[in-house]
């Protein structure tokens, strides 16, 4: 039996988490599809599952989180932030997020995770005295990339001990999702069951 892979709605845990952050404000299906580079069928399925879970409301203005959805997102946000655009690196769109209390990690493994998830490259930084630094040698990001350091500091309320993940890729969607992928590789166990069940 032959079948087309594209005929099946497919999305990842990273897509589901990205959608939750997007739906803090009413967002149309087309906007979700374009931002995440997902087929409309996949977006429809994902939104329908969120509706069944009782996490979103749908109006003519689009879909948005309801009270329960917002509570769920607040719980996730205690562990990692929403991605933010922080300019370009090597001519590619770059995004960043922060991870609270990351625990033990190896920078090179986290960079590999990002690249496995379609990033062109990634930087893993730790916040010390309010500055993002390279954990391997304690070098501040501001020494080598002052503009990026300022953008990161402007985009987030950095706290000492936070991890800052910066990823870049040819497509914005891949840069965003690879950053979420790194956060999830550190924090998947704290994700609520409702979210994990979306991709089963």
How would you describe the overall organization of this protein?
There is one protein chain. The chain is an alpha+beta fold and 200 residues long. The protein has 2 domains: 9-77, Winged helix-like DNA-binding domain superfamily/Winged helix DNA-binding domain (Arc Repressor Mutant, subunit A, Orthogonal Bundle); 84-188, GAD-like domain (Gyrase A, domain 2), CATH 3.30.1360.30. It contains 9 helices and 7 strands; from the N terminus they run αααββαββαββααβαα. The chain has helices at residues 13-22, 29-36, 40-52, 67-77, 107-116, 141-144, 146-155, 172-187, 193-196, and strands spanning 56-59, 62-65, 84-89, 92-99, 121-128, 131-133, 163-168. The strands form 2 sheets. It has a 5-stranded antiparallel β-sheet with strand order 3-4-7-5-6, sandwiched between helices. Strands 1-2 form a two-stranded antiparallel sheet. Helix 2 crosses helix 3 (40-52) and helix 5 packs across helix 8. The two termini are 24 Å apart. The model is unreliable at 1-7 (pLDDT under 50). One of its GO terms (cellular component) is cytoplasm. One of its GO terms (molecular function) is aminoacyl-tRNA ligase activity. Keywords: ATP-binding, Ligase, Nucleotide-binding, Protein biosynthesis. Residues 102-186 form the DUF4443 domain. Residues 12-70 form the PH0730-like N-terminal domain.
Biggest sheet: strands side by side, in what order?
Answer: 3-4-7-5-6
Q: What CATH architecture of the largest domain do you see?
A: 2-Layer Sandwich
Q: List the total number of helices.
A: 9
What is the CATH superfamily label of the largest domain? GAD-like domain
| Estimated radius of gyration | 17 Å
**Helix percentage range:** 40-55%
Taking the alpha carbons of the first and last residues, their distance comes to 24 Å
> For this structure, what is the CATH class of the largest domain?
Alpha Beta
The overall pLDDT, averaged over residues, is 94
**How many strands?**
7
Main sheet: strands, sense, barrel: 5 strands, antiparallel
The number of domains is 2
The best one-word shape is: globular
């Amino acid at each position: 039996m032959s079948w087309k892979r594209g005929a099946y709605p497919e999305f990842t845990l990273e897509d589901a988490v990205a959608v939750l952050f997007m739906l803090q404000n009413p967002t149309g299906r087309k906007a979700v599809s374009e931002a995440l580079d997902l087929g409309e069928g996949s977006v429809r399925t994902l939104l329908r599952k969120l509706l069944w879970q009782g996490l979103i409301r749908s109006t003519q203005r689009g879909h948005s989180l309801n009270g329960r959805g917002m509570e769920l997102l607040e719980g996730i946000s205690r562990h990692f932030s929403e991605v933010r655009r922080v300019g370009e690196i090597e001519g590619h769109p770059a995004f960043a997020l922060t991870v609270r209390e990351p625990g033990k990690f190896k920078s090179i493994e986290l960079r590999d995770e990002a690249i496995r998830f379609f990033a062109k490259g990634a930087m893993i930084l730790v916040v010390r005295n309010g500055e993002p630094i390279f954990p391997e040698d304690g070098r501040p990001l501001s020494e080598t990339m002052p503009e990026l350091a300022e953008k990161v500091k402007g985009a987030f309320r950095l706290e000492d001990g936070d991890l800052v993940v910066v990823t870049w890729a040819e497509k914005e969607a891949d840069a965003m999702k690879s950053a979420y992928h790194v956060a999830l590789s550190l924090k998947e166990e704290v994700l609520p069951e409702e979210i994990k069940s979306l991709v089963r």
